[in-house]
């Protein structure tokens, strides 16, 4: 009997949300195990033995323990090609991966919890806000050339899986979104899709009850 995939996650992790969206979109049933980053549960020996980077997400699937969200997305696409998240056209695929890189390499790592913890607490919101706003300006310029209903054309791709979770932090830190019409349109479109709704941070099992009614 095939084991159900297990996603180790944290409710406010944009990296984990990317994987959750993809799993939902592809119709893959999975179990979630929360890892509380604020309590440093990711540093527990039992977790580090599975994921030496001590980060989320970690996806246990097909007998494999997979870390790094983009690598997980690629694995899901290669092993579960139904409901594809990459275009067939090579140039379009390259555009998707470029947007993914702009988000996952140039924005998210510079404003994640590990980085923010190195700064005085009163400097953290402005640092995150500046990094996200600057990065989204680049993404918006890229979308000028690629966007249809979604980031690249009219089908959901890896790019949308990565963009939408990043916007949660944009709203959380008060980024002025008025400068990003393409991003706003894509956020509005995806907000109506069940895979994105299920992956929203307020819908996760470890989201504190007092935060579950927030809208960003």
TrEMBL record:
Domain GST C-terminal as annotated: residue spans: 89-209
Record-linked CDD domains: GST_C_Zeta, GST_N_Zeta
| InterPro entries the record matches | Glutathione-S-Trfase_C-like (IPR010987), Glutathione-S-Trfase_C_sf (IPR036282), Glutathione_S-Trfase (IPR040079), Glutathione_S-Trfase_N (IPR004045), GST_Zeta (IPR005955), GST_Zeta_C (IPR034330), GST_Zeta_N (IPR034333), Thioredoxin-like_sf (IPR036249)
GO annotations of cellular component type: mitochondrion
Keywords of the record: Isomerase
GO terms (molecular function) for this protein are: glutathione transferase activity; maleylacetoacetate isomerase activity
Reply yes or no: does the keyword Isomerase apply.
Answer: yes
Instruction: Write down what this protein is called.
Output: Glutathione S-transferase zeta-1
* Species this protein is from: Coemansia guatemalensis
Q: What is the lineage of its organism?
A: Eukaryota, Fungi, Fungi incertae sedis, Zoopagomycota, Kickxellomycotina
Name of the gene encoding the protein in the UniProt record:
GSTZ1
